[in-house]
From TrEMBL:
The keyword Cell membrane does not apply. PANTHER family: FI09636P-RELATED (PTHR43691:SF11), URIDINE PHOSPHORYLASE (PTHR43691). Its EC number is 2.4.2.3. This is Uridine phosphorylase. Keywords: Glycosyltransferase, Transferase. Residues 16-231 form the Nucleoside phosphorylase domain. It catalyses: uridine + phosphate = alpha-D-ribose 1-phosphate + uracil.
Amino acid sequence: MATPHISCEPGDIAPLVIMPGDPKRAERIARTRMDDARLVSDVRGIGAWTGTVDGVPMTAMASGMGVPSLSIYATELFTQYGVRRICRVGTCGGISSTVKVSDVIIASAAHTNSAVATIDLPGVTLSLAPSFDMLRGAVDQARAGGSSVHIGPVFTSDFFYSSRMDIVPALDRLGTLGVEMEAAGLYACAAANGGEALAVMTVSDHLGDGSGDLSAEDRETLFQTALEAAIAGLKA
C-alpha cells in the first residue's frame, strides 16, 4: 500500500536502506553500486531504487534536508514497508580540531536543538544513539580501509544558517565532532519504531578553521569511503 510520500508496495522496498540527503546521490548509488537496480518510487522527485549490493537486497532513497523531511520518510519506511535498518550517508561540517576535511565521522550519538529529543517525554531529553551492531560494522570497514575515521557525537541542527555560532566552541569542548541536519531525527525515528539506524558522514568543510568547502567532484570521490562504511553497517 502506497503512502502519501512513497508510491510502491511494501515488497518493493528492501529491509536495508541507504539514505543520502540528495535524490541525485541516491540515484548515483543505485547506478554505480547496486546490481539490477530499479526505480520503485518517485514521489516529489525522491526516487527509491531497489537492487542488491554484494548480493544483499538494499534500497537507496533520499531523505531531503533536515529532521522534518527525513522523519517523514524514515517513519513510513519503518512502519509501512518493513524496513529494519536505515543508514544515513552524507556530509557534515567539522567542529573538533581533531577532524579534518575529507575525514569520515560515524555518529555514536546525536545532540540536537530539534524537538525530536523532547517531544515524546515532557521533562526528559532522549539520548539519541545508533544501533551498536551497525556502528561496529561501519567502524570496522572504515578502519580496515585505512581511512581517517572518527567515532563520536555530532550536533544535529534545525538551522543551516544560524546566528548562534557562539555555541560551536562549547560543542567542541564537549567532544562534538561535527554538525549536520538529520542524524538525530533518524535515531529518534528508529527508537520510536523498533528499527535500527546509523549516520556516516564525510567532512566537507570545517567551522573551526574555515577549511573546505569541497568541490562537487571531491565530494563524490570522497563520499565512496563513507558509502562503503554505511553498507557494512547495514549488513552487520
